[in-house]
Structures are given as C-alpha cells and as structure tokens.
C-alpha cells in the first residue's frame, strides 16, 4: 500500500468490477442513443454562480455540498454537483436552441461532486448518466424520458424499483400553494433551522425524514389540491401516456426534489433494496431554469440516473450481468522465437477484431497458464520450440478442454471460424 488513500467518500473502480460500471452506463445510455439524444460533454467545473442561481441558493447542494475554489486568476468555480445547469449553459452558449429544431435532446455521462456525509450509496464523487430535452413543453417528452429510464433499468434486469410521480405546479399555482403551506407549517412545533426553512424553502420541509416532524405533516396541504387547470391537464396527460406505455408509477403527493429548478412533472426512481439512499435516479421539468441563468424561456425536462446506486441495486437483486470476458484468446509463448511469432499472431488477432492478450515477462509455463486461466479467455494458444519446428501452435478450447495443433499462419482464420 502507498502512503495515500482515496479521499473520504470516494472509491476506486477497479477490474473486474469496473466492467459492471461500464455496462451500466452503456445500458442507461442505449435507449437515449436510439431516441434522438446526442452526446454532450461539459467541463467538470463551472462558474459557482451557475449552480447558485440554477440549483438554488437555499438548497443543501449549494449551501453545504459544493466543492468551491478560487483560481489563481480570481475566478470562483465549483466542481459540478449535478449536470442539468451545465448542459443548459452549454446549449445556450452554443445557441443550439436557435438552430431551429427544438427540442434539443442531449445525453451525458460523467462524474459529479457533493460534499455529503458519506455512507453506503452516498459518495462525494459519484457518477451519473443523464438526459435533457430542452426547449419544448410537451407532456410526451416528460413521458418519453420516464419510459426510457424504465426501459434502461429493465434491460439490466432490475425489477424491484418504483417510479414516484408528482407535479410541482408552475409559477401561477405554486406561489399560492407555498403560502398555504407556510401558514400550516408555522403552526407546528419545529426546531429553529426547520422554521428558517419555512421562509426560504417550505416545500423541502415536506421532505423531512424525522419521525417527530413527519407526524406533524400528516394534515399538510397538498400541492395536488392547488394545481392550476393548465398544470392539472398537463399532469393528466403525462400520466395517461405512461399508462398507455404500460409503465407503472405511483402518485406521490409529497415528492419534492433537492433542487429548486423544478416545475410541473417531477419523478424519482427508487429501489427497495437500498435502504436509506433509495433514489437511484430522478428528474423532472425545469421550465424556468433557462431564464434563471440569463437565457430565453426554454421549457425543458430531464433526468439523471446514479450509476453507483444502480450497481448497488443490481447487487441487491442478485443480478450478475452477462459480461464478455475481457479477452477471447490468450497466447503463451515459450522461448524467444515463439515469443516473436506469437506476438505477431496476437497483433493479427486484434486487427481481425478478436480480443487477445499475451504472456508478457519471464514467468515460465505454469505462471503464464495461470494468467491465461484467470483471463477467462475462450482459447489459449501455446507454442514452444518443438511446435515451431513443425510450424504449429497448440490451440486449446478452454470450454471443451480439446487441444489440437494448428498451423501458425492459419490461427487467425481457424479461431475466427470457431467463433462463428
Ligand atoms: P439528483 O436527484 O440530485 O438529480 O441526482 C440524480 C441521481 O444521482 C440520484 O438519484 C442518485 O442516484 C445519484 N446521486 C446523487 N447524489 C449522489 C451521491 N452523493 N452519491 C451517489 N449517488 C448520488 C440531479 O442531479 C438532477 N440534475 C437530475 C435532473 C436532470 N433533473 C432534470 N434533469
């Protein structure tokens, strides 16, 4: 071990487990890539103000969890705690919304940073795959995104997840509700900090997990009863489209998200095998965010799914993904001449698109065979001096155990045809 360890709240992804993370990212992005979403990549850090204004000055993410830094040039930056504000900033900066084809549909995958209290499923560095559909108000877009996330999770074999759905209203009806909620909350027996929250962000109080608070919230007014006609109709349409697609969901009147930009549709994917950190993904509509960061009105919707928690969900359901072995062929060369020849064969195999690895270093036959076994390769090629004298190598099928000599110059074609 070196003197150094990964920082608190972070962990390293190492083979073979790291292959599962790659497969999860692939599975989440696959339905997006076939639904018109283009790949976007933004910097790992942004102007701190982008998140303060976008995610919200009163959110935990902005007040407590951002990694901020001042550059030598005096710029105030923050490691990105989430992707939506950055992606919208990038779309606006490149004028993607002016190219004429709205919505602008984008997907992304990357690392995010939040200075949170670490626990299982909650890290300071984590990974998301996300999608944003920018510039169009259409309940079919909200439904599309939820359906694609559902499809992604199902393609991984996940079953024990639920979709929680709510509407947070818009700038017409939410303020009326907010006031009613504040009136109710002020009558409760709450601690100082929570009372302060009533003024700044009363909806977040509904999200309080403490039993003594939850008990008092039973009769809290519900946003559902305050939705304006337009929001109600919009929400009904999203629900109808989900139902028509056969995607099950639960109406959750109390679903409030930890980011301030949401309007109307909000949803969360929760997994029942994960304990406290049960949200594997979440998202919603953010019709006002563009204006909040200085852009034109661009009603938008999106989600981000947590890769780390999705991997934990797979473990909780006992799902082992059928991943191909990293290499198909492992070549073991005994002696200088064999090394040179088999190294050439390995190069040719790779060129032919067959994943192959080679017995590097001086380890002797036993050591090299151990590596070959460990690699999970379907075939091994072994060649020593006696084989070379006959112009062959021994090709072993590791599944059947069968071994036969194959002419050196026929190896690539022979393996290719055996693989079909
Ligand atoms: P979020 O709910 O903050 O939403 O994060 C989405 C997902 O990222 C969570 O459901 C969770 O799986 C994962 N996640 C968040 N924090 C952590 C953490 N500390 N450790 C491990 N996993 C974590 C957003 O980030 C929004 N930008 C989603 C969105 C996109 N809304 C509209 N568009």
TrEMBL record:
The cross-references to InterPro entries, in alphabetical order and at most eight, read: aa-tRNA-synth_II, aa-tRNA-synth_II/BPL/LPL, Anticodon-bd, Anticodon-bd_dom_sf, His-tRNA-ligase, HisRS-like_core, HisRS/HisZ, HisRS_anticodon
Query: Per its record, what are the GO molecular function terms?
Result: ATP binding; histidine-tRNA ligase activity
Localization, per the record, is:
Cytoplasm
The family database entries (Pfam families) matched by this protein are listed as:
HGTP_anticodon (PF03129), tRNA-synt_His (PF13393)
The Aminoacyl-transfer RNA synthetases class-II family profile domain covers which part of the protein?
1-324
Q: Which reaction does it catalyse?
A: tRNA(His) + L-histidine + ATP = L-histidyl-tRNA(His) + AMP + diphosphate + H(+)
The lineage's top-level taxon is Bacteria
Is Phosphoprotein tagged as a keyword? no
Upper lineage is:
Bacteria, Bacillati, Actinomycetota, Actinomycetes, Kitasatosporales
GO BP, one example? histidyl-tRNA aminoacylation
- Protein species of origin: Streptomyces liangshanensis
Instruction: Look up the EC number in the record and give it.
Output: 6.1.1.21
* Name used for this protein in its record: Histidine--tRNA ligase
Task: Kindly list the positions annotated as binding L-histidine.
Answer: 82-84, 114, 128, 132, 257, 261-262
This protein's GO CC annotations: cytoplasm
Family as reported in the entry's similarity comment = Belongs to the class-II aminoacyl-tRNA synthetase family.
Q: How does it assemble?
A: Homodimer.
Q: What is its main location?
A: cytoplasm
Q: Which UniProt keywords apply?
A: Aminoacyl-tRNA synthetase, ATP-binding, Cytoplasm, Ligase, Nucleotide-binding, Protein biosynthesis
């Amino acid at each position: 071990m070196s003197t150094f360890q990964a920082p608190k709240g972070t962990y390293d992804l190492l083979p073979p487990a790291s292959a599962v993370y790659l497969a999860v990212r692939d599975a989440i992005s696959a339905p997006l890539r076939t639904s018109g979403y283009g790949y976007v990549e933004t910097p790992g850090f942004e102007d701190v103000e982008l998140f303060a204004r976008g995610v919200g000055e009163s959110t935990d993410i902005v007040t407590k969890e951002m990694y901020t830094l001042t550059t030598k040039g005096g710029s105030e930056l923050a490691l990105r705690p989430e992707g939506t504000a950055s992606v919208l900033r990038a779309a606006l900066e490149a004028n993607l919304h002016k190219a004429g084809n709205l919505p602008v549909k984008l997907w992304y995958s990357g690392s995010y940073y939040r200075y949170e209290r670490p626990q299982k499923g909650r890290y300071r560095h984590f990974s998301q795959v996300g999608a944003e559909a920018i510039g169009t108000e259409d309940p079919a877009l909200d439904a599309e995104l939820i359906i694609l996330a559902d499809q992604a999770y199902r393609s991984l074999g996940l079953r024990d997840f639920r979709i929680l759905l709510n509407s947070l209203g818009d700038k017409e009806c939410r303020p009326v509700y907010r006031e009613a909620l504040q009136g109710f909350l002020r009558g409760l027996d709450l601690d100082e900090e929570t009372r302060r929250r009533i003024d700044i962000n009363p909806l977040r109080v509904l999200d309080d997990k403490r039993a003594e608070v939850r008990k008092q919230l039973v009769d809290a007014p519900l946003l559902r009863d305050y939705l304006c006609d337009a929001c109600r109709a919009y929400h009904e349409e999203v629900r109808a489209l989900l139902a028509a697609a056969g995607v099950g969901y639960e109406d959750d009147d109390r679903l409030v998200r930890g980011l301030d930009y949401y309007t109307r549709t909000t949803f969360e994917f929760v997994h029942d095998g994960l304990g406290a950190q049960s949200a594997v993904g979440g998202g919603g509509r953010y019709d006002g965010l563009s204006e909040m960061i200085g852009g034109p009105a661009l009603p938008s919707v999106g989600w981000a799914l947590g890769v780390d928690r999705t991997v934990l969900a797979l473990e909780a359901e006992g799902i082992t993904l059928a991943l191909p072995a990293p290499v198909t062929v492992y070549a073991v060369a005994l002696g200088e001449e064999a090394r040179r020849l088999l190294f050439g064969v390995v190069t040719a195999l790779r060129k032919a698109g067959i994943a192959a690895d080679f017995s590097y270093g001086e380890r002797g036959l036993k050591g090299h065979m151990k590596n070959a076994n460990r690699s999970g390769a379907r075939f091994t090629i072994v060649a020593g001096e006696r084989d070379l004298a006959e112009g062959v190598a021994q090709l072993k099928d590791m599944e059947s155990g069968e071994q036969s000599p194959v002419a050196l110059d026929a190896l690539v074609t022979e393996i290719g045809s055996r693989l079909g």
